[in-house]
Amino acid sequence: MTRILIGGCQQEISTFNPVPCEYDFFDRTYGDEIRTTHEGTGSQIGGALAEFKTALGDDLELIFTYDAEGTAAGPLRHSAFLRIADEFLTPLKDHAGKVDGVYFSMHGAMGTTELLDPEGYLLEEARKILGPEVPIVISMDLHGILTAKMLQNVDGLASFHTYPHVDFEDTGRRAAQILIRIIRDGAKPVAARVRVPAIVRGNELITDTGAFGGQIRYAKNLHDNPAVLSAGFFICNPFTDVPELCSQAYVFTDGDPDLAERSAVEMANEFWPNRHIMQANLVSLEEAVSRGASMAGPLAFTDAADAPSSGAPGDSNAIISEMIRTDYPHSILASVVDPPAAAKAHELGVGATFHTGVGGALDSRFTPLELEWTVKSLSDGKNIKMESWKYILDTGPTAVLTSGNLTLVVMTNSIMMVDRSIFWANDLDPKDFHSTIVKSPQCEPAFFDDWVEANFNVDAPGATSANLKNLGHTICARPMYPLEENTVFVPNVEMFSRS
Ligand SMILES: [Zn+2]
After folding, report:
1. 134 and 148, same domain (yes or no)
2. pLDDT tens string 105-147
3. 232 CA to centre of ligand 1 in angstroms
């Protein structure tokens, strides 16, 4: 009987979001709950389960421990992380020396208010508990920051090969396959990684159509070689400012260090010349609003700098403030997280008018927009089904406020605004407005691009700005392109092997 232990812990954070993330922000599942949550689904754990069953059939016992999943946010409060870490690690103690393999589902871009490599900590502590012999394999997001500490404590890893991400299940399957090859075939993993001093953003990262697709195709082709256990390329989350933030190539082979080294270097070398085009193409705030004012519409203004799906608080009013300042002549639809303004509207009721500042309630880089507002409608914000993904959103007490030509959905909770869900949930359709502001790094064409005259990718301030130079990194290794334009890349291979 092959006994495999399964757990997980995943989140990505923006260091530049001043609001810490709390324990309750995580969906936590315990023991066999993990099986019922993931079995038969397209998640990483779901894919790994299916692969283990296919490969091992009845000769398989799965042991589920703990899984904590949080969406993007500000840095995790350290005390909350310690609680999650304890819940992640404690169940492992019952299984030390009794399992043949371990699979953990991770993201890789966590950060706490005190700890800069939480996944490395979890894996190092898990290794201490489970012992040096048992193989541990993880799956990761390609926005994860793979660290030396993580590599010192795992025997294999598989990362997404797609952006936008659609290969959750496949990644879980690839991670499971590595573990199976170690357990069943006696594979001896040896890993090479090459760190590239560049952080990147923008459309060239779309794996189907952009330049970054080249590295991914290279990594996928490597999998055809039976000596290769896994290969991939991390573009990392540029908003997670940690010491090992960078782009990086990795290759795990079965006992072939030369192949691992050669392939990782080649991937990194092919990536480096594309660093210039792998940056976002942005329009300045002033220019976007000025051009929009003279256009027939409809228009979309993409504010990726305040995208909660990337870890921003969602309380930016930068674009609407510029529109109000310049007497923008068209109807505007926008959204903002502002708990006090939402509460005030609920206290006063529909039809009331009041004067208050809106925006900047969480991130002090924004100045509240002081206007006279009318409460158009109120809702509890519960059970909002996303247009794009499976998630159900809870915006908390929510109000639609209007002032002149501006209609604003004011929410209590920071939730993902990658599509039109929050507008529809409040009986508002972007198609009824000249200009809609969407707080998302990447909208599917059907949401806006297919029917608007133009979609301005605005260079606004915020915790998840695609203008990487202006974010204010202080921790990552330097020089780092594009923070230093003249950064030089000399490939340096780091090798890892646990045998
Ligand atoms: Zn990602």
Report:
1. yes
2. 999 999 999 999 999 999 999 999 999 999 999 999 999 999 9
3. 14
DSSP 395: -
369 shares a domain with 267: no
Residue 322 Cα, ligand 1 centroid: separation in angstroms? 31
pLDDT of residue 441: 87
Q: Is residue 485 part of a domain?
A: no
- Residues 57, 95: one domain? yes
Interval 343-364 mean pLDDT = 98
Name the token pair of 490. 């000399």
Is residue 184 located within the same domain as residue 305? Answer: no
Query: Ligand 1: distance of its center to the CA of 294 in Å?
Result: 36
Tell me, what's the pLDDT at 484? Answer: 98
Domain that holds residue 231: 2-277+491-497
Tell how far the Cα of 73 is from the centroid of ligand 1, in angstroms. Answer: 13
Give the span between the Cα atoms of 392 and 388, in whole angstroms.
11
Q: Are residues 41 and 168 in the same domain?
A: yes
Between the CA of 141 and the centroid of ligand 1 the distance, in Å, is: 5
At 493, is the pLDDT very low, low, confident or very high (cuts 50, 70, 90)?
Answer: very high
Same domain (yes/no): 266, 290: no
| Cα 143 to averaged position of ligand 1 atoms, centre (Å) | 5
Measure 28 CA to ligand 1 centroid, in angstroms.
Answer: 20
- Is 33 contained in some domain? yes
Instruction: State how beta strands 60-69 and 283-284 pair.
Output: unpaired
Question: pLDDT of 371-392, one tens digit each?
Answer: 999 999 999 999 999 988 778 8
Nearest 5°: CA angle at 215, between 211 and 216? 100
pLDDT band at 346, cuts 50/70/90?
A: very high
Report how far ligand 1's centroid is from the alpha carbon of 144 (Å): 7
Q: What percent of the chain has pLDDT over 90?
A: 96
pTM score of the predicted model: 0.95
**Predicted pLDDT at 164:** 87
Is 254 domain-assigned?
A: yes
Residue whose pair of structure tokens reads 């509207």 in the numeric block? 345
Element (H, E) at 46: helix 44-56
Q: According to the 3-state scheme, what is the secondary structure of 89-103? A: HHHHHHHCCCCCEEE
Read off the pLDDT of residues 17-37 as tens digits, 9 standing for 90 and up: 999 999 999 999 999 999 999
Sign of CA dihedral 142, 147, 149, 155: positive
- Alpha-carbon Rg for the chain in angstroms: 23
Ligand 1 centroid to 80 CA: how many Å?
Answer: 23
- Structurally, the chain folds into a number of domains equal to 2
Are 417 and 386 part of one and the same domain?
yes
292 CA → ligand 1 middle, Å: 31
